[in-house]
Write a structure and sequence with these properties.
The protein is an alpha+beta fold. It has a single domain (2-117), classed as Hotdog Thioesterase (Thiol Ester Dehydrase, Chain A, Roll), CATH 3.10.129. The chain has two helices and six strands. It has helices spanning 22-41, 123-126, and strands at residues 2-8, 46-51, 54-56, 65-75, 79-88, 94-105. Strands 1, 2, 3, 4, 5 and 6 form a six-stranded antiparallel β-sheet that branches. The chain starts with a strand and ends in an 8-residue tail after the last helix. The model has no long low-confidence stretch (mean pLDDT 92).
Length: 134
Amino acid sequence: MNFHTRKWVKPEDLNPNGTLFGGSLLRWIDEEAAIYAIVQLGNQRVVTKYISEINFVSASRQGDIIELGITATEFGRTSITLTCEVRNKITRKSILTVEKMVFVNLGEDGLPAPHGRTEIKYVKDQFQDGDADS
């Protein structure tokens, strides 16, 4: 799993119990997963179709640094399926898991469109064959 995004839990992110508000965390996850899908499919027009059961494993408190890990598990004809884990950056303790998130690739007409991808594309592979600016 790739952990790229980190968030600092601030007072505005807390619920009345003094822990990270689930809604804030879910917003961060949906945004990060959408960005991951966009990069993998090479198209800015993707939409969230499905998010499976969300398992809150432990709490996060003000001042914690958390990291979001996302990886692709399946490529459909017009979709990409992801899995997600959120953990405490320092302790590595799991905070939340999402088994399945499905994003759909859209064409210019706003309808599902084939993306032609079949495997994860890593950053190091995106700039081969002289594509990188020097």
